């Protein structure tokens, strides 16, 4: 009966969720973003590590900017594996030069680097020996000189903004996932122990919760980050250690109510251990609100990471972080190039909104009184 009941309730919750348009839309949007995060380097036009290929001569160009790009292959073999290139980017040792025009004569490639009239035109002569042997002049031109379009333009260092945005999704997703995982492990464990055993154990854990709760989240994250040092993994730990209190309070409240149920009393009478009673009988019936809180915490973690990166104590350059991208370009808003800060801002806003909407949809679907 219990299993059939559980299946029935799960089916009802799933049907209610499917009827929520914004919840379903957010779910597919988040799945799409997760796919992009995993295969960012496959999808990004610039597949170098951290999408960090700089071209200072074409900095701060608008979306849709087109330029001829000359690629001079490197003689150094990186020795990267196929999977390393897909998931961590290519250790790019090639040289890319934006050019305005070129000519080929007597085995020498003469190119005029892109200048847009900012400096006196300087031409460069490149010997064909820099290119692989066995290629004809036409093959070299067709393979190594191509028109490149920057769909979202370039940032102030001349890097492809679209590639930086795609790789930046990884930071947001990673920080959200790891922070929520840490908060769930700590919050569920401490909340369940406090609610089940009560007494002095409950008082001690509640004191710890209240002390942590009283400290502003951003200040606590900054303090932990400064103590652990600046860096990617330090931010993960710092954000996760500040998000467990809400989970712990909710789990404690749920456990206090569930532990009085008859089936828990029956489990005690049968001699089951406290660990089994908590994990098998109490927690499975207490986690519906935690699922909703986790979605909100995921959104909160993304915002906190963006704020830390904006302040310069989050993900460090050259890593692509949406918060750091806003920091680098917020002054461009008054220079007529607001898109450099607006585009990563829209990325943060859309991802956070998706998690909030899916959290609301889950709350409505899991509401047994609805």
TrEMBL record:
CDD domains assigned to the protein according to its UniProt record, in alphabetical order: TM_PBP2 (cd06261)
Membrane topology according to the record: Multi-pass membrane protein
Matching SUPFAM superfamilies: MetI-like
InterPro entries in UniProt: BP-dependent_transpt_permease, MetI-like, MetI-like_sf, OppC_N
Coiled coil ranges: none
Record-linked Pfam families: BPD_transp_1, OppC_N
Keyword Nucleotide-binding in annotation: no
Record field: transmembrane: 21-44, 171-197, 204-226, 232-251, 286-313, 333-359
GO CC aspect terms: plasma membrane
Ranges of residues in domain ABC transmembrane type-1: 169-359
UniProt KW keywords: Cell membrane, Membrane, Transmembrane, Transmembrane helix, Transport
GO biological-process terms attached to the record: transmembrane transport
Subcellular localization(s) per the UniProt record: Cell membrane
Family the entry assigns: Belongs to the binding-protein-dependent transport system permease family.
Xref: PANTHER family: D,D-DIPEPTIDE TRANSPORT SYSTEM PERMEASE PROTEIN DDPC-RELATED, OLIGOPEPTIDE TRANSPORT SYSTEM PERMEASE PROTEIN APPC
Name of the protein described by the UniProt record: ABC transmembrane type-1 domain-containing protein
